[in-house]
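For concreteness, we quote verbatim a single protein encoded this way:
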Amino acid sequence: PNKIAVAVTKAFLAVNGEPVGPLDRSALERHLHDGTLRKDTLAWRAGMPEWGRASELSELASILASGGGAS
C-alpha cells in the first residue's frame, strides 16, 4: 500500500518559564484548548536557532488558526 508522508510537528513550548516537550500535534492542540498555547507563547523546534513566538512557526500558526488562540 502507498503511504502518504505526514509532517509531524515536534515542538517545545515555554510554560511558566520552563520548556515543555517535545509535543506532537494532538498535545499542542490540548495546550491550545487549555490556554497554554497562544500566539505569543514562546516555542522552539529542531532547526531553529532560538525560541520565537508560536505564531511565527508555520506548524503552530496553523494550529492557532484552527483553534482561534488568544493573542
Observations:
- Residues 38 and 70 are 5 Å apart (CA to CA).
